[in-house]
Amino acid sequence: MVETAGQVIEGAGLSEKRQQSDPSNALGQESEVRRGPTVWSRFKRHRLAMIGLSILGVLVFLALFAPLLTRYSPTAVDLSSYRIPPDRDHWLGTDTAGRDVLTRLLYAGRVSLSVGLVAVSIYTGIGVVLGALAGFFGGWVDSFVMRLADVVLSFPTLIIIITLASVLGPSIYNVMLAIGLLGWPPIARLLRGQLLSLRETEFIIGARAVGCSDKRLIFRHLMPNAMEPVLVAATFGIAYAILIEAGLSFLGLGVQPPTPSWGNMLTDAQSLTVLESMPWLWLPPGLMIALAVLSINFIGDGLRDALDPYIQNR
Amino acid sequence: MGRYILRRLLIGIPVFFGITLVTYLIISLAPGDPVSAMVNPEQISELGPGWLEDRRAELGLDRPLPVRYGIWLKEVAKGNLGYSYTDRQPVADKISERIWPTVKLMLTVQLLALVIAIPIGIISAVRQYSFIDYFATVFGFTAISIPAFFLALAGIYVFAIKLRWLPSAGMGTVGQEPTFLNSLHHLILPAVVLGLGQAAPLIRYTRSSMLETIRQDYVRVARAKGLSERNVISRHALRNALIPLVTVVALTLPQLLGGTVIIEQVFSWPGMGTLAIKAVRGRDYPTIMAINMIGAIAILFSSLIADIIYAWIDPRISYS
Lengths: 314, 320
Fold this sequence. Notes:
The structure holds two protein chains of two kinds.
Chain A: H1 5-11, H2 15-27, H3 32-45, H4 47-64, H5 66-69, H6 101-137, H7 139-154, H8 157-168, H9 172-182, H10 184-199, H11 202-209, H12 214-250, H13 262-265, H14 272-277, H15 279-307
Helix pairs in contact in A: 2-10, 3-15, 4-6, 4-15, 6-7, 6-9, 6-10, 6-12, 6-15, 7-10, 8-9, 10-12, 12-15
Chain B: H1 2-29, H2 41-47, H3 49-59, H4 65-77, H5 91-126, H6 131-145, H7 148-162, H8 180-213, H9 217-224, H10 229-241, H11 243-266, H12 272-281, H13 285-313
Helix pairs in contact in B: 1-13, 5-6, 5-8, 5-11, 5-13, 6-8, 7-8, 7-11, 8-10, 8-11, 9-10, 11-12, 11-13, 12-13
């Protein structure tokens, strides 16, 4: 099977290999008691993943406790303090409507991180259901789901998301919905592939042979094993969703002002004057996006390695 | 292999109709009227109220949805993509004048990405776990994590505003005959910004493909024959390691169309991306969906071509 660009970015080239090595992975995990700590200890050894986890922890903390950390309002307009460069009162200056940039940066973290999380939850849910249907039932259900996935995947990602966002009307919830409704195909494909290859493994044949019920087979043996790569893909997906949201909001088609999002805070920088003489307006939100996305990608990488010890490449 | 290609083509057919159906559904369900889009609003009052209705009936717009879809599909096959809601121009004309700048940008980006990715990927595989390998991994993650538009803004700030080395917008200097050097000058910044992001997954693909190849028996044989390491890598391993890249390039190239959208906007590049954003802002659904459909069909065909090339180029793979 051939991967598409979305997956290429998320999986960065290793997911095809995973699928082959995964059945053997299943052999090492009869004892679930031992398994939990092992995954965590492998994750802990992944230096980049631990750096990512710490950075993301700080970002989540800043977003959660934003009201306690700043005395300014993220939305109230104050024209007496128009575009002030950073000083003691406003560490990162103020924007075109006189709002404190640091305050908006903290509140924007709430918006951007939750858009990422919710959008990915939506499409992982859709993808798991459709992928499981395709993988369990096969036949025409499988063909239908896979062709549907092909259709959705054919559309150029960003353009079709922009289109859907504009049909729904730009707002924070519709951004979540647009990304959520269009992001499921890689997840569905991944889960289906997993289920198909697991079906042929010895431990599943064995479970069948000893008279394991369908329900037990599905929920105890198939799904837990098949979900591992889905979890990894979903983690990378959060990073990708944050990038998409930032792009949409930057273009004015996503989260609408005055609600701050890291993406729409950069919109002003499309003017050369702002870009040239007011770097405090565009540098911090851009760096925040990069930091959040990078740390989530590191976590995803660590998770991938921790869940699959058979991957040799780092 | 003939049967494999045939099966692959047969799978493509429902996907093709799926793409066109989605396109048509969105155009027909979204607000806006295709008939009013074809005439000047000042003339509508002169033509009388019945004229619009007659014209609709003539075009079959009063028929049920499946019939309308059939009519629309036939027109699309003839190259008629409808009329823009905002300026009443034929959509096909609007797109054909925008397609070349975008293709030019996309091809440059892809070329640049390959030039960056292949050497780095090979070195990180040959010297696995070295400093360069580690650096390439971090570089790859950073390149896919920085939003392209932020990188573009930072690039404009540094190279256009502060250093004044490169232009900040457009495809050529306004009011000047376009020369090769001048357009290259305008191409550098957008191409590099997109090229870095495009190179990142290619580095990983090159690296993992190369790692797999250098563990093969024939590479060991080449070494055992006493060939120099350089020879082994460049003549024996490299060619085989690059096979999977053909597929990756064929699949990621058309997806770049999505990536060019924001970058074209930032650099005022007169391509399909800026057209798409203008169309979305003006709720011009015939235009926006035509761009979507062209992109989708391009992606469908290149994945088809990718699979066929892959089957043809790599005789080790058997298809059942």
